[in-house]
Amino acid sequence: MNSSCTTTFTYWDSWQFQATFSHIIIMITLPINLFGGYCIIKKTPRNRRSARWYLLHLHAWTIISDLLIGGLVCPYMFFPVLVGISVGVFSWFSVPVWIQVFCAQVGLGGLAVAIVMLFENRHNTLVRGRFKIEAEWIRYTFYGINGVYALLFLLPVYFRIPDPEWAKPILLKVSIPVGVIVMPMIYCFYSIVWQQYNQMLNNIAIICISLHGMSSTITLIWLNPIYRHFTLSVLTCFKYDSNIRRSSVMTVSPATITQH
């Protein structure tokens, strides 16, 4: 198979570029992500408290995966071949590569499981029908199976010899950050299939993936009126009114929708 690669090697192709910018991004986004977690804990309306734990669970895994990909592991990949090295904090302390790979796997797997749990909770709350999981033991078994899969789906590698209104922001909170990951992954897929090597684009792809957490937090805050108003009040030093937008809160039941 024919392959092509860049003929020059600049700073933008180096691991120093990727590591430096990834660590800068982590330092900028971590306070934003922590603020998003505070909004979920303290500013979630009472009628939406049933989703708070699941939303916080997803947000926590988002932060963890960001810290792993952008700071602790920070993989420096050599697409189109599936080869890379770690240039993150773990490498400073000579943490074994297989442990770093496993940590990254757990972070991304935990994020995927948290997304599934959030949508199952919203489906269980809003939908009445034959496809709803009624029994608690079935639900926890379902969660457990997903969790075990997230931990073990790459196990063979280690043994190789060589409410509708509330649901919309949740859907966008997941889909917009996923879109941040999709474009770099499309490039990675293209690079592997067509054997195109460009180290600068490899670095940019990994850096873009590390922006996932910040985009998730900004989307969460901007699309939720309560969180958005509180954030604006913090930024503009206005007093936060907990009764704001009370007139826009919807009470959702299986049969009726009542406006207060």
From TrEMBL:
Q: Which domain of life is it from?
A: Eukaryota
Transmembrane spans: 20-41, 53-78, 98-119, 140-158, 170-192, 204-223
Q: Which Pfam families match?
A: 7TM_GPCR_Srh
Q: Does the keyword Thylakoid apply?
A: no
What InterPro entries does this protein map onto? 7TM_GPCR_serpentine_rcpt_Srh, Nematode_rcpt-like_serp_H
Q: Any idea which UniProt keywords this protein has? A: Membrane, Transmembrane, Transmembrane helix
The record, for PANTHER family, names: SERPENTINE RECEPTOR, SERPENTINE RECEPTOR, CLASS H
Q: Write down what this protein is called.
A: G protein-coupled receptor
Native organism is Caenorhabditis tropicalis
